[in-house]
Structure formats: C-alpha cells, structure tokens
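#struct-help
A.M.: can someone run this one for me? Single chain, 240 residues.
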Amino acid sequence: MKDQLDLLWELQKIDLTLQEIRKNRERYPKEMERLDEKQGIEKERVKQERERVESLEKERRQKEGHLGLEQEKVKRAEGKMFEVKTNKEYQALLKEIEMIKESNSREEEEILRLMDEIEEVKKDLSRREKEMTATLSRIDAEKSVIQGGIKESEVVWNRELARRDSLSKQLDATLFRLYTTLKEKRQGIGVVAVKRETCQGCFVNVPPQMYIEVQKNNALVRCPNCNRILYWEDRSENKR
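D.P.: on it. Structure tokens below:
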C-alpha cells in the first residue's frame, strides 16, 4: 500500500500542476486583451493630441491668410486716398481703413494666442509621446513574459500529462477511481498531507490513533471530516 500511496501523492501533485496550467490558460488571453486595450488607449491619447495640434495649426493658417487679405485691403484703401475728390469721401475711406486695422489688430492678437497655445500643446504632445513610448515598451515586455509563460506551460503540460498517464497505469484501479471521485468533489484535491495532526485539506485535527496510522503510510486512511485520503510526507518536508 505504501508504494500505491506514494504514487497517489505524486499523482495529486501532478494534477495540481495541471490545474494551475488550466487556470493560466484562461488568464493569459484576458491579460493579453487587457494589454492590447491599454496600448490602444495610449495610442488614442497621442492621436488626439496630434489632431489637436493639426487643428490649431489649420486655424492659425486660416487666420493668417484672412489677415493677409485684410492687410491688402488696407493698402488698396490707402492708395485710393489720393484719388478721392471730396472731404466726405476722404473721411469715409479713412473710417473704413481704421475699422479694418482694428479688426486686423484683433486678428493678430488671436493669432499670437493661437501660437502660444500651439507651443504648449506641442510640449504636452512631446511629453505624451515619450510617455507612450515608455508605456508601450513596458506593455511589450509584459506581453513577452506572458508569451513565454504560454510556451513554457505547454512544455510542462505535455510533460506532466505523460507522467500522469504513466502513474495512473501503475495505480490500483479501485484506488484510482476513489481518488478521481474525491478530486471531483473536493475542488481538485483528493489526497492531502497531514501536518501537526491536522488535515491540510480541511484543517481539522485528526484523532491521535488515526494520526499514528497515517504516519505509517501502510493503509488507506481518510479524513473523518472532509473524507479525503490522508498522506504522511517526509518529516523534513512537514517542518517547512
């Protein structure tokens, strides 16, 4: 029975490893999706900043173009001043020139304001681009770790699956069925160690006489509380 219990204990450890790999297989795609989303958010923020700069630059060019046309109007109006024949015409033309100049002055102030805003937005954009580069680099590193974990888990999965198949064939069929049934009913754990007179599955103390029997590993002993199969590890391991 001792050999059978040793095999069963090894089988349980393999099944826990496989169980952890299954969890990771479910977790890895979600992690990759989260990182992809994070990358998308970072890129979208920079894109919006760039579009804002382009929009402000376009507005500035439009205002500068309009200002140039209005300044040409002033020049043409000023040229006409030598052609007017009456004081009334002269005063009207003078008033028109002043109005255009006042409008142009406001336009120039608005252009200067836009230029200041563009400069600030470009500074923010430069900072954001540097932050995005650093963030994307970190995300790529995280992705590489996950991809490495996926590859490694596949290697471990295949190796442990082969070991499980080999061990299962060496186990008594009745014992294997019992273990399988308990494992399905007890969150994947059908056999547990006993440490300091306590079942490590449900953490309930086992009776003294049962504890002595478990330490021999010569008979099938089950926890009176959770019904799992009890196993005694090497004493040095129990002290950890």
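A.M.: thanks! The chain has two domains: 28-170, 174-234.
D.P.: also worth noting: The chain has five helices and three strands.
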